[in-house]
Amino acid sequence: xKVVALMKLKDQEERLVNAFPKVEFTFYKHPELADNDVxxxxxxxxxxxxxxxxxxLDKCKNLKLIAWFATGVNNLPLDYIDKRGIKLTNARGVxxxxxxxxxxxxxxxxxxxxxxxxxxxxxxxxxxxxxxxSIYNKTILFLGTGKIPExxxxxxxxxxxxxxxxxxxxxxxxxxxxxxxxxxxxxxxxKADFIVNVLPETDNTVHLLDEQDFKSMNDDVHFINVGRGTxxxxxxxVKALENKEIRHVSIDxxxxxxLPEDSKLYDMENVTITPHITGNDNRNMERCxxxxxxxxxxxxxxxxxxxxxxxxxxxxx
Length: 317
Description:
Structural class: alpha/beta
Largest sheet: 7 strands, parallel
Keywords: NAD, Oxidoreductase
Number of helices: 11
Strand content: 15-25%
Family: Belongs to the D-isomer specific 2-hydroxyacid dehydrogenase family.
Number of strands: 12
Protein name: Phosphoglycerate dehydrogenase
Radius of gyration: 22 Å
Pfam family, one: 2-Hacid_dh_C
């Protein structure tokens, strides 16, 4: 078996080589440096670069698996991959720990008035009459019920929060008190104090949230987006904030990235911005390698069961 990584895997390279002494590994710093003769013989491709398009994959005549070291696969030529019968795995769940922490960071920054107390500190003021809120018995609603919201929901239950999930069919998921289908979302928004988008980008989720979605939410709701920026257009989001249809927004992902300097979002008081960093962590590579090792073992043993984190090409996640 020949495995070609189109990126440096740091200390995971030695780990992989030691774990599979009979597998031939080739590590490149970037796809543009890959040798065509090596690509031609590759059984497994490890990557996350946009250069991995249909033209690039045409060079990989023997390819059986793309181990995508990122969660979103929407920029890959999925129809082409499906037509060739190439399996695709992603990094779903690798970022769950740190993103769950960020979600509660946003929530506590808001509820515990950290911004206000920091401003008072800078002004040498001691505002002891500030009255922070609590998340006890509050309701958090997740758009998406995958690994990230599942972990976050588990933490929310420890804080005695009520947890609602929205997924494609409304099927039940552990850790959620209630689950509804995506079509029913407008009927349940009013229950939520916090609404968190963690949906992937697919043909069905681009601009899924429109003006009516935000009109259906409580005007005191805190909307958090750590999924994909394309789920809502910036114009719709800005209008909802200007019209006070929602109270606060915390955003890590944007329709256009980097967020343009002239974006209205930068100057709005009721907006918290982070620059697409909620998934960053120094252990991400190790966790991605864990998935790859499990799947390489399955391939070597001719185990025909579904691979860990295998992507459903038709659904796009």
